[in-house]
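Fresh eyes needed here. Have a critical look at this protein's tokenised backbone.
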Amino acid sequence: MSLPESSARPSVGHQLIERYLVRHPYGLAFGLLLLAIGLRGLVDPLVGVRLPYITLFPTLFVVAWYCGFGPTILFAIVGSVAAPFLFFLPRFTFKAGAPVEVIGTLLFLVTGIGAGIIGEARRRAVFAAGRAAIRADEERERAEDEAAKAEEAAVEAEEATVEAQEAALEAAEALSARLAAEEEARRAESELGEFFENAVVGMHWVGPDGTILRANRAELTMLGYSSSEYVGHNITEFHVDRPVIDDILSRLHADEKLRDFPSRMRCKDETIKDVLIDSSVYWEDGRFIHARCFTRDVTAQRRTDEAIRALQRLESVGRLAGGVAHEVNNQMSVVLGAADFVLRRDDLSPEVRADVELMRDAAQRSAGITGQLLAFGRRQLLKPTVLDLKEVLRGFEPVLLRISGSQVTVRVRLDDPGGNARADRNQLEQVLLNLAINSVDAMPNGGTLEVRLGPTELTRDDPRLRFEPDVQPGQYAELAVADTGVGMDDRTMEHMFEPFFTTKPVGEGSGLGLSTAYGIIRQTGGYLGVQSAPGLGSVFSIFLPLTAQPVARPREDEFVPVVAGREVVLVVEDEPEVRRIAARALRVAGYEVLDASDGAAALEVIRARGDDIRLVLTDLAMPRMGGFDVAREMASLAPRAQILFMTGYTSSEAMRRNALRLGYSLIEKPFTPDSLAARVRAALDTVAGAAPTPR
């Protein structure tokens, strides 16, 4: 056992004793005994006195101090035995005469025992203190270790706290990010829901089995259903063509995206809408969740396309009709003129006169047909004036009563205000007559014919104008002719304005009534609308733009021109027969007539006789040089001459309108000799200097 550590550093000797002697007490005691005996052997000769135990006592105390009871007793016994023999011999006898030796030995033994007891106590105390110190050191070391561990734990705890704080911060950031993401997701979902509900295009989600899972407001409004009437039902209930929707569903299950897929959907009011469908499927883990479908109503567009196609057909037929009318009018002018000249003879037999009159009547009827063709093609010459439509209907009411018969009830309804419109009264009455006759024919078993007048507002998608693609929105006067007849289906209405199309038996209708009415109204600047269904009758509506201009009243002192004359007139016509008839008619009326086959020839005549010519009667449409070109050149060659245009047909409606706008006079083919002479006289009687300026 080691000695307790002191606060001061131990000496080298103390360290040696601690290391070699204290740890081996019996060896230390024996060594000290030998050292004491050796010192006694050195000291004794010097002092001359034999004191055997004098040198042993200090050593005894050292042994007792450092080695404890056992080594001290060993030291005392060995010393008390060895000392007499070493130091007293040969005089040591232990006799009565040697009390000093005996007393010294006993004293040495007793001292050794006492010192051993004291040394042992001291040694035990030292060892106890050492052990306490060791325990204290161990406790200190353990405390230091614990402190170090606590410090490490504190550091680790601090690090853990920092990590926990960082983790808490990361968790807070993650939570904040998650909350922000959830908020963003909720906002996106809200925006998506708002977009879904407020989108202008129809949207609906469809499940794998065709069940409608969701539909927005535009979809429901487009079809007229409530949410409960639409959502939750199978999509096949609303598509007219079952194979189409089956095809759509099969394509969606094959993960095929649909773009502009055409279909027809049934509305709540049983009407049918043409739609285009865009759709794609939302998949999740390979499962068909729902199909997202976008529905666009293209009914109006389809109707517009159909109207454009119908209008193109009508334009094509109109051009053909105009071309036919041009040729027929030229020939009818010849026939009527020749017939008129023949009928003026006094030497005709009754049979010949009757035949010629028959030919003239046929020619006039043919002229009427060509007039209808021109009306359909919007190429006839109109004379529009501002009309009071109420007055027109009041004047037309007796005509309606005459054509209706006893089985048809006629009603005329005039709403206030009626309104004024600009139109050719004769042509407008012709349209009303055609529509009324058509309505009466549609009621073979009787019914009601109603003609009503009132203001209305038109929009581009007005259902009454399904065949009019170019509707100009605004306020119009509506002249409606309604009947309770058999009505028409969609197929019939697609062709009803085409010339010679009729549903009547052969010989009972020419098929020109509606086509003529359509052409006149379109040329007037209005629209002709229709609403009809089988068994529900028909309503034909004439829409004319309202005008604030006052009604034009005819003058009571209107001048009636004299037919005959003596002036020089130049006739320019590329058709020889027409030119010959026109020239003859004017010569019969007393005029001096010059003629030319085209514009170039006319200019040569004008250069030669320009000062004498008072009127040029020229066709508008001619090869090489037309009537406008002649008028333009004539302005400098014969400035006093008037212009009268002849027209049977022109491919340019703008040319006709331009002639009227500039104030030129026109006469339509076919014409009779008398009507031609009258128009020439009226043109010649125009005030000098008031002739239009060619442009």
Q: What stands out?
A: DSSP finds 19 helices and 17 strands in the chain. The longest helix spans residues 99-198. The longest strand covers residues 272-284.
